[in-house]
TrEMBL record, chains A, B:
Cofactor(s) the protein requires to work: heme b; Mo-molybdopterin
Pathway: Sulfur metabolism; Energy metabolism; sulfur metabolism
Keyword vocabulary terms for this entry: Heme, Iron, Metal-binding, Mitochondrion, Molybdenum, Oxidoreductase
PANTHER family: SULFITE OXIDASE, MITOCHONDRIAL, SULFITE REDUCTASE
GO aspect biological process, one term: sulfur compound metabolic process
EC number: 1.8.3.1
Protein name: Sulfite oxidase
InterPro entries in alphabetical order: Cyt_B5-like_heme/steroid-bd, Cyt_B5-like_heme/steroid_sf, Ig_E-set, MoCF_OxRdtse_dimer, Mopterin_OxRdtase_euk, OxRdtase_Mopterin-bd_dom, OxRdtase_Mopterin-bd_sf
Amino acid sequence: MSLIPMRAFRMMLNRQCRIKYFRTLNYSNSNNEQGNENNRKNAFNSSHLLVSALISSVGYYFFVTGKKRFAVAEEAKTHVKNDIRTVAGQFRPDLPSYSMKEVSKHGTKENQVWVVYREGVYDITDFIEQHPGGEQIMIAAGSSVEPFWVLYGIHVNDHVFEVLETLRIGNLSKSDIVNVADVGDPYAKDPIRHSALKPANMKPFNAEISPALLCESFITPNELFYVRNHLPVPEINPHSYELELEVEGIDRTAVFSLDDLKKFPKATITATLMCAGNRRAEMKKVKTVKGLDWGPCAIGNATWSGVRLRDLLKQVGVTEDEEILKHVHFEGLDLDVTATQYAASIPIWKAVDRRGDVILAYEMNGVPIPPDHGYPIRVVVPGVAGARNVKWLGKIVVSEKESTSHWQQNDYKGFSPSIDYDNVDFSKAPSIQELPVISAICKPLEGEVVKVENGYINLKGYAWSGGGQQIIRVDLTLDEGKTWHIASLDAQDTALPPQHWAWTLWSAKLPVAPEFKEVEIWCKAVDSCYNTQPERFENIWNFRGVLSNAYHRVKIKLNQ
Amino acid sequence: MSLIPMRAFRMMLNRQCRIKYFRTLNYSNSNNEQGNENNRKNAFNSSHLLVSALISSVGYYFFVTGKKRFAVAEEAKTHVKNDIRTVAGQFRPDLPSYSMKEVSKHGTKENQVWVVYREGVYDITDFIEQHPGGEQIMIAAGSSVEPFWVLYGIHVNDHVFEVLETLRIGNLSKSDIVNVADVGDPYAKDPIRHSALKPANMKPFNAEISPALLCESFITPNELFYVRNHLPVPEINPHSYELELEVEGIDRTAVFSLDDLKKFPKATITATLMCAGNRRAEMKKVKTVKGLDWGPCAIGNATWSGVRLRDLLKQVGVTEDEEILKHVHFEGLDLDVTATQYAASIPIWKAVDRRGDVILAYEMNGVPIPPDHGYPIRVVVPGVAGARNVKWLGKIVVSEKESTSHWQQNDYKGFSPSIDYDNVDFSKAPSIQELPVISAICKPLEGEVVKVENGYINLKGYAWSGGGQQIIRVDLTLDEGKTWHIASLDAQDTALPPQHWAWTLWSAKLPVAPEFKEVEIWCKAVDSCYNTQPERFENIWNFRGVLSNAYHRVKIKLNQ
């Protein structure tokens, strides 16, 4: 462990990150002078970067609501025929041509905001406020959207192209066109994944396994653990890896190598991690939401070993007896093209509390953390939404304020069903930390034909609650709540609340009347605070589709 | 503070208690030799006292379920005509007479269990297992039920008398009859209460104020704070008051006078206390439950000042660094006729944790705790069910096991809707500690005619969550969830979760369509773990009617 002046280290880190990314991506957005690195850098630096936050999670895309806007899109459809993906950005002889230099003059709202996609030039000025990712769209102002769309693959979507073409104003001069194939793929070095992981999105990679597989094991194997990446997986050399620790406003900074970290006492916890968007696909059926179509398997349970965060914080004088400042930030080493890293924060009490059990993990289920899960160090904040369990940890900052990152401030928050993108004020809701009680039926699956054996069907599933609460009961009904059955809790950790971090696996054998050809199974769990799940998605709907913990309902056909 | 041998103190305490109660009550149950105190004592000591627990909360009464038993009761009704209260226990010429001596021989199940009520003799052997209070009924075996019914006034109930008369086997010999008027009233010295407190039960006293009054003040005035007593209010002399502290199995015992306690640093918290049965009356509408008919006002918010429990525990070497044993018991000085005190326990972590904030309070809202609320010392276990906030605290025991008290083991637990008295196994459910999120509409009231002003109606209410969670949102709907409105959070404590112990008062001004003549308002709250309330009582129904936190629904008439 070595102490270095804070500011110097920070500058060094930022510089390294930027250089790395400018080397990886072969940008086509600044002008046509390829190979001129300085020009490319300048173009980026002048692109109104909102450095404090980053474009968006993969859930953000060019989705447009409102009748008027849809009407325009419909009109565009007739223009561009059916194959929108091929047609979008193609030369249109009815429109004027502009040079890249001309486009680059339209980089502020005052001058209208233009962007380029393939051969197309678009005026997106009026669209900015409808962009789900908000002002972040401005990082492409006056240049090409293509490198960002490579980074956020969700934009490659028929609807996005339809909307885009409604904003078309011209063609890019032939001499300025760069083939998209020349643009480097920041995801090229992502690890190879197990084929059982079904991607909800490829770039960044987000995937879950099948429910039937998930409930087979109390400890989820690393290869089958859901992956929720916001950016490309960074390549980190464990020998040169360093973790920086800073206390804002106070001259207390420390840097730890991986070896330094391993010298601390090793702590192990069994903890379930879950994406706040788990089970989003069900909420989406009520009314559309923005975000990945997660099934019920954006959750997994593992043992995590590493350094206690509180032990590390003691090194800079932050303890539960001296709760300096109010939040602890975690900055990942996964970066976007603007060198902004993924980041999140948790309240100080969770970080210093002896019952908080926050671990800087270097092992997952007894082996080094795999690249997709944060190698070499990820924070495990048990009981708290996956988004705060920052992977590829590069820096910890003790601060008076919450992280200003996009994911802390403008994502991963819950809202009333009455709030949508039109009227949201993100500052009105607290960032999601501890998660509410949830459960799911993993066997059988929706629509499955289930063999009735001697009048019974067999069910399996999981239940979990955040905040260190234990599942005390899982209730099941086949008749919409007229009769409730109690599941058997088959696998549960021995840790007591409020430090019970692991999920519960359950099973049940339920009687079905011989005349039934199909039934709908409902499932709800109760935790050690006696909190239980809400019944229906209608009343907990939120436009980001997070906190989808209504009763799990699975309709099956009976073979009897 | 002085240290005395534990066993000696305990014996002394028990002796004092018993003597006190035998002096207060003028029993008529042992035999007809009134005034012979020794005989009375012996009768009690031989009455198969299950000293470990006590009859019941007032919620327990002779309620009987099952078609067969109802049929018998119906038959009994025709026998006893209409005025069951007058007729019950009256002489019946068709039945034989027994002396008290004969009755006293029937004090065990082997010899059949007989009891006396007025002039009636009853064989309750077959009823014992149906008694909601379970085996506790045996304390009256071979003697009279009357002193117990004086203690637990809920037994004085038409239905109880009806059931009782179905068990009638004879008359008590005329020479053994004692007028009930001779039985002393253990509640005679209960304090005089404010007339705004509407009793749900008189003996023991249980009362709440009106919702409209409740939501008027963030701090509930002491006189208006709900009262939930399980036994008579004990008279305690502050000068001779002593609090004993014991660590089970280890020779660490301490005794503190009130002055000793006041020498510790004074801590103050603002905390809401709520009975786990709050809002039971609503659950009861779905299907009957056992317990007091609480409205939504068995809740109140106060500032509590006193000694931190963790400071006291340090005196006997129990700290968060040395979590000796697993539970902390609290024994009240309120006693039943068997000298068993009200008692409950909490897990050790809550007692020693710096964020647990458990206070041995000697002040409530800046003045000495009133007699109804635990004078001179009550435990305030913030975020935890009222039942664990033991009043008139006499003793603290650090123990390996939970309290064995009736209220810890066989009451204040939550069950699935499929569980009833017929099939309950109390050991299957954890005792209620931290409470789930709840809310209520205090204005307007159910059925109220509300004046619509310029198209709007005004609402007020409260919301709260246990476990130190803060209310982050209150949602309201007038159209069964099609449209949700967000309430204004008007009054809230500044303490952060997980130490946010106080409730939130909210208000809203909601638009109503001019054509509506009546509306049903639904209310739900969301806490800082993003837990929310379940929708309907049907799916959270439990036979004790606790944890009644479904959406609050209030139907009103509109004057417009």
